[in-house]
Amino acid sequence: MELITNVSEYEKLAREKLPKMVYDYYASGAEDQWTLRENREAFSRILFRPRVLIDVSHINIATNILGFNISMPIMIAPRAMHKMAHPEGELATARAAASAGTIMTLSTLATSSVEEVNSVGPGIRFLPTLLRQLVRRAETAGFKAIALTVDTPRLGRREADIKNRFTLPPHLVLKNFEALDLGTMDKTDDSGLASYVAGQFDRSLCWEDVKWLQTIASLPILVKGVMTAEDTRLAIENGTAGIIVSNHGAGQLDYVPATISCLEEVVREAKGQLPVFLDGGVRRGTDVFKALAMGAAGVFVGRPVLYSLAVDGEAGVRKMLQMLRDELELAIALGGCASLRDITRAHVVTDGDRISRARL
Known about the structure:
This protein has 14 helices and 12 strands. By secondary structure, the protein is of the alpha/beta class. It is globular.
């Protein structure tokens, strides 16, 4: 294998290795894919204001999330069907996350069950579900939180999946649903996933359901998919434990802003009452630094997990996480910080900052 020097290089190698239907499912976004591109490009418009002559001989990036100590503020987002990327699927990802000392979020649409993931050994794991049976199973399996996805009353129009007539390969099963009699993902004339989701996802999901979930779950509940101040207020009013700013990897509503562009609005409205995390577009340690400077308590990465898993299994995911960690430590040192608490909003400048200064 050629020398991989950054996280983005895994995507090119994964594209060469994976079947077209699988790669397109992992890589594509909704409709024109403007938001998919913007999730990355928005990071490039945020620049650093580094400080100098600061002792950075010892860098500490350990942090605490919902009472759990982790090695770095970089966590694994829920992405479906890891076994399409590698035979060990979510089990390899879980081992890599545990080895890195960080959090893994298992997708509800996983090809390994909560019990199977738990069987690989200790780890801090979240699950995004509203199903009573799955909540109970997650609690029994030692999962630590529910990260409820709230932006999918319907599945976004993903045209690559329609062209490919995407469906789950016949040797794989959505393991969390295997015993729940929720049907199968069959081949259709468009996207088998879209058809399956249309039959399973609840379009009436609302904040009352979040409150109901708190009555049946002993775990803290985060909401994933919040992008506005208005929904931030409602998340706080309804007792959630945290917010993950996310546009579902640009797979739902196209032409919404990049998540990094929404982050400060959510952070300002949260007023420190609950932690705010960022999901979407992170490919560099510098991206993590920028998100932290703008108020995120940590970031989640999704597609890089799938690409690195496809290329080199568990070892690939471990290396990908280590590269992000190393880059973050370097960015923090070069930015003039010795720990996460030293990072402030003054370390970055955005387009909005430059416009505001020009008006003065």
